[in-house]
Amino acid sequence: MVLNITAVYFHELFNKKIWDIINNKFQNFPKVMESELNLKNVRLIEPPLISEELLLKVHTKEYFEYLKRRWDYLGARYTVGGCVDAAERIMKNEFHNALCFGVAAGHHAGPDNGWGGTYASVSGGIIANLEQKFTNFKIAILDTDSHHGNGTRAITFGKHNILHVCFCDTNKIEDNGTKICIDSGYSTNDTEYLSKVKNEFIRRVEEFQPDLIVHLLGHDTALGDYGSRGLSKNFFLELVKLVKNCAENVCDGKYLINTHGGSNIKICEYIHPRIIRILSNNINS
After folding, report:
1. Starting at the edge strand that comes first in sequence, how are the strands of the sheet with 162-168 ordered?
2. By C-alpha distance, which of 41, 29, 90, 33 is closest to 281?
3. Is CATH 3.40.800.20 the classification given to domain 6-279?
4. pLDDT of 93-136, one tens digit each?
5. Contact assessment for residue 45 and residue 12, using Cβ atoms and an 8 Å cutoff
6. 210: helix, strand or coil
């Protein structure tokens, strides 16, 4: 029997520093997910560095030079490199799905700027690499960090093969219906938020029929974290179950999660090992 492999990308550098915004939330990783990493269909992967040539396909030369001077440049390169590698290997059916840990890179990084603890573009790196190696592919990006993914929006705008649905503070549909903002509400609950994901993301994905779902998952929306919208820690598990089920039905399970915002260590350590079990179908193990 061929195992459906869940890849977990984590670099030891991620637990060695206090990173902008997310602080040192990974200080006890990968130890806290040791039992999950021992599951027969889970593989711990050390992320490769993204090439600087590929970064230059995403960011302007001027911004790239700034990025290289940042103290967290290496962390950003490992983060984007892991996501790029995971996305390609999922598309090639080497892995079924993946959880990619990350620092210093994410949805606030645009072509010529970055802020909020994210200074290189994860989505941009994934797209640029797939454009070199695949044709006629489609990606659906779900952004459930508490804040607007302005950088991802800037990088993907005009690419109608990329669906970007961002749960933030406004309602907006643009770029031929492929770029959507959803007001998730400052004070909400698990049921209301999940209902919006079903109506505004799952429904669109079923129509869009992507080849891969990329989930920018922040837990800053949790009660007790800096971007709280009133969600429980179990919300994130139900969210992943919902999106994973959608991926199984729409794109043969091709689902990549990249960790985003949130600095609460207890929430971080609660949700991520359980997310591995959900991705690997070992939910009750």
Report:
1. 42-45, 6-9, 97-100, 255-259, 212-217, 139-143, 162-168, 179-183, 172-174
2. 41
3. yes
4. 999 999 999 999 999 999 999 999 999 999 999 999 999 999 89
5. no
6. coil
Q: Token pair for residue 270? A: 């609660």
3-state secondary structure (DSSP) of residue 192: helix
Question: 155 and 111 in contact (C-beta within 8 Å)?
Answer: yes
Find tokens 């072509």 and name the residue.
111
Domain boundaries, the chain: 6-279
What's the CA gap between 270 and 261, in Å, rounded? 15
Which residue from 2, 5, 130, 124 is spatially nearest to 67, judged by alpha carbons? 124
pLDDT tens profile 146-195 = 999 999 999 999 999 999 999 999 999 999 999 999 999 989 999 999 99
Considering the entire predicted model, what is its pTM?
0.97
Contacts 24+ apart (CB under 8 A), 197-202: 197/142, 197/144, 197/167, 197/239, 197/242, 197/243, 198/242, 200/165, 200/167, 201/140, 201/142, 201/165, 201/243, 202/242, 202/243, 202/246
Q: What is the dihedral of CA 93, 247, 85, 19, to 10 degrees?
A: -160
Count the alpha carbons within 13 Å of 55 in the hemisphere toward its beta carbon: 26
Adjacent-strand bridge partners of 44: 8
* Nearest-10 Cα torsion for 143, 146, 147, 148: 30
> ∠ at Cα 220 (5, 228), nearest 5°?
140
